[in-house]
Amino acid sequence: MCAAWWKERVFYQIYPRSFKDVNGDGLGDIAGVTEKMDYLKNLGIDAIWLSPFYPSDLADGGYDVIDYRNVDPRLGTMADFDAMAAAAHEAGIKVIVDIVPNHTSNKHKMFIEALADGGVKCGLPRAKAIRYAAQMLAGSAEMVLQSGKHPEQLKDDVCSPGGSTIAGVAALEAHGFRSACIDAVDAAYEKTKKLG
Predict the structure, then answer these.
(1) 163 and 157 in contact (C-beta within 8 Å)?
(2) Which one-letter DSSP state was computed for residue 104?
(3) pLDDT digit of tens for each residue in the chain (196 aa)?
(4) Fewest CB within 10 A of the end CB: N or C in the chain?
(5) DSSP string, 105-140
(6) Which of 10, 67, 8 is nearest to 40 (CA)?
(7) Strands 94-97, 47-50: pairing kind
(8) Cα–Cα distance between 93 and 87 in angstroms, integer?
């Protein structure tokens, strides 16, 4: 295959949590992908694209990743992943994994460390770190408000731990940022009312 093989090949996307359940717990797993490798080969595909299978609280469909170097225990182990990759390669199928490195869970080690002292570990003075957090929250609030949701519902979506818009609010709350978040939602709501 050429260096840019992915431009001309057929991919099959797999969401492991719903693809094939081998252990009978009602949730798809990595071993299920391995078990269906002959089926995938018979489809004539060149590669499988695995949606996130990492440890996650599923606040964002698995994209709120707690550890990029591991498999969610509900889906299997690293040994299961290695066996799946080996079976795919034996079948002539490449494996691509879905990684969004700037979209972590609030439980990810880097996220926790970044907020441990108000952002100073990231090279930000505390005041600037707080200001950036407030800007992020205000921008998210304005964006979500376009959905037409009631502002009280938005406060739940944007400002609560595990919220769909800001996955890291639980960590922010530990540093007293929740009130700033709610203020940002209120300010964005008032702004959108004035804009009609």
Answers:
(1) yes
(2) B
(3) 557 888 889 999 999 999 999 999 999 999 999 999 999 999 999 999 999 999 988 888 888 888 888 999 999 999 999 999 999 999 999 999 988 776 777 777 776 666 665 554 455 555 555 555 555 555 555 544 555 555 555 555 554 444 433 434 444 444 455 565 566 656 665 665 565 4
(4) C
(5) -TTSHHHHHHHTTTTGGGT--HHHHHHHHHHHHHHH
(6) 10
(7) parallel
(8) 8
CB-based contact 68:99 (threshold 8 Å): yes
Q: Which long-range contacts (CB under 8 A, 24 or more apart) does 51-59 make?
A: 51/13, 51/14, 51/15, 51/16, 51/17, 51/98, 52/98, 53/16, 53/17, 53/81, 53/97, 56/105, 57/105, 57/107, 57/162, 59/105, 59/162, 59/163, 59/164, 59/167
- In sequence order, the 6+-apart residues with CB closer than 8 A to the CB of 88 are 37, 40, 48, 94, 95
Residue count (the chain): 196
With residue 11 as reference, give the H or E element that holds it.
strand 11-14
| CB neighbourhood size of 125 (10 A) | 11
Residue found under tokens 């707690």: 66
Tokens of 88: 């795919």
